[in-house]
């Protein structure tokens, strides 16, 4: 059966404008019941500067429900491009309902440390001044083998005097800027829940000193949910925003502190879900997201105009599938860590994806 699945994956190929994207191989990292857990959700995948892969995710011990349920965060490492993985390592353990942790997001600092930001304790929509959902950070100086104690960043994003009553950082990947006056800046997209309505707005949490101090941007997207960031060729930042229907976007010309006029991508009218963006070469971006109004058919969209438009989605996971995280591997292939739930319970898969750029004329 495994051989058949691999052959079917190899046949899944997208060709558009001379570009070719294909699934090279796949591996299930977690199934329901593995390691005594009921469900596995919320993938975050990052290729580190030493070429190793770090995969971090929720271990939902009793059900698939979000915080304030009792949730652990675990991680695995690979040193061969995702072909083999270490056994799961506990990053932080939930201590019961209202004392769990989830929704991890990763970034590597210019100095080499890896940061993992995540939510904890109360649920997002249950958050209040007295019992808030919290935003925590942990640091690893050895590529994810060991982790520091938690640092609480909640009050950087909101407090009792603000028009918000909760916040969390979108799971998956943060961003480290590579060029321009803000090179080295670390950024994460955050959702802040208004006090006056069941509506969220996006802000950016950023640091210029490898995560020792943090700042909040001006509003990046009004009415947005989980969001992802990418650095464009001209140095601007592009924000892709979860919302029902057409996916939202905005750009920043000053390293993420202020933002322009928000817009929508009508060609990406999809389920309100968390996805990811990745630059695969100088001229091409890819975006992973369910290509459906339901949580199914996680697909890879491509853009050859720096995110102004998206086209030719490759269906990566036929059937029920949800969140995904992308990273560029040392050999030029792409790693994708994605949720699938074919039987109604969540499992996590790693895909290795080949990309052939169009021939130069």
Q: How far is it from the N-terminal to the C-terminal residue, by CA? A: 42 Å
Beta-strand content estimate: over 45%
Average residue-wise pLDDT: 93
Number of strands: 26
Sequence stretches where pLDDT stays below 50 over 5 or more residues: 1-18
- Specify Rg, calculated over alpha carbons: 19 Å
Can you tell me the number of structural domains? 1
CATH architecture heading: 6 Propeller
Helix content: under 10%
What does the overall shape look like? globular
What structural category characterises the helix and strand content? mainly beta
Number of helices: 2
- Encode the helix/strand succession as letters: HEEEEEEEEEEHEEEEEEEEEEEEEEEE
Largest sheet: 8 strands, antiparallel
Q: Going across the major beta sheet, what is the strand order?
A: 1-2-26-25-24-23-22-21
CATH hierarchy class name: Mainly Beta
Task: List its traits.
mainly beta; 361 residues; 26 strands
How does this structure look, described?
With 361 residues, the chain is mostly beta strands. It has one domain: Neuraminidase, CATH 2.120.10. Helix content is 4%, strand content 50%. It contains two helices and 26 strands. The chain has an eight-stranded antiparallel sheet. A five-stranded mixed sheet has the order 10-9-8-7-12, with no helix packed on it. Strands 11, 13, 14, 15 and 16 form a five-stranded antiparallel sheet that branches. Strand 24 and strand 25 form a beta hairpin.
């Amino acid at each position: 059966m495994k051989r058949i699945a691999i052959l079917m994956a190899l046949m899944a190929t997208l060709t558009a404008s001379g570009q070719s994207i294909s699934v090279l191989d796949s591996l299930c990292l977690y199934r329901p019941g593995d390691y005594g857990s009921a469900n596995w959700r919320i993938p975050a995948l990052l290729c580190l500067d030493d070429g190793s892969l770090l995969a971090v995710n929720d271990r939902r011990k009793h059900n698939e429900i979000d915080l304030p349920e009792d949730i652990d965060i675990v991680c695995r490492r690979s040193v061969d491009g995702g072909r083999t993985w270490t056994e799961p390592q506990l990053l932080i353990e939930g201590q019961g309902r209202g004392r769990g942790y989830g929704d991890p997001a990763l970034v590597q600092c210019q100095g080499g440390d890896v940061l993992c930001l995540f939510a904890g304790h109360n649920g997002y929509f249950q958050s209040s001044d007295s019992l808030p959902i919290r935003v925590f950070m942990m640091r690893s100086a050895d590529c994810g083998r060991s982790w520091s104690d938690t640092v609480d960043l909640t009050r950087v994003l909101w407090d009792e005097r603000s028009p918000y009553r909760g916040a969390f950082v979108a799971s998956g990947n943060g961003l480290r800027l590579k060029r321009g006056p803000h090179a080295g800046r670390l950024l994460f997209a955050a959702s802040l829940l208004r006090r006056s309505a069941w509506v969220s707005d996006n802000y950016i949490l950023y640091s210029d000193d490898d995560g020792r101090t943090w700042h909040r941007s001006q509003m990046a997207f009004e009415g947005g949910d989980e969001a992802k960031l990418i650095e464009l060729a001209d140095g601007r930042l592009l924000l892709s925003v979860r919302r029902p229907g057409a996916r939202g976007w905005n750009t920043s010309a000053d390293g993420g502190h202020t933002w322009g006029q928000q817009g929508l991508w009508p060609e990406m009218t999809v389920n309100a879900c968390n996805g990811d963006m990745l630059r695969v070469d100088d001229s091409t971006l890819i975006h992973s997201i369910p290509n459906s109004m339901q949580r199914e058919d996680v697909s890879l969209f491509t853009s050859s105009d720096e995110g102004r438009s998206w086209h030719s989605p490759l269906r990566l996971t036929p059937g029920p599938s949800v969140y995904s995280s992308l990273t560029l591997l040392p050999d030029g292939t792409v790693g994708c860590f994605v949720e699938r739930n074919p039987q109604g319970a969540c499992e996590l898969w790693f895909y290795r994806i080949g990309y052939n750029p169009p021939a130069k004329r």
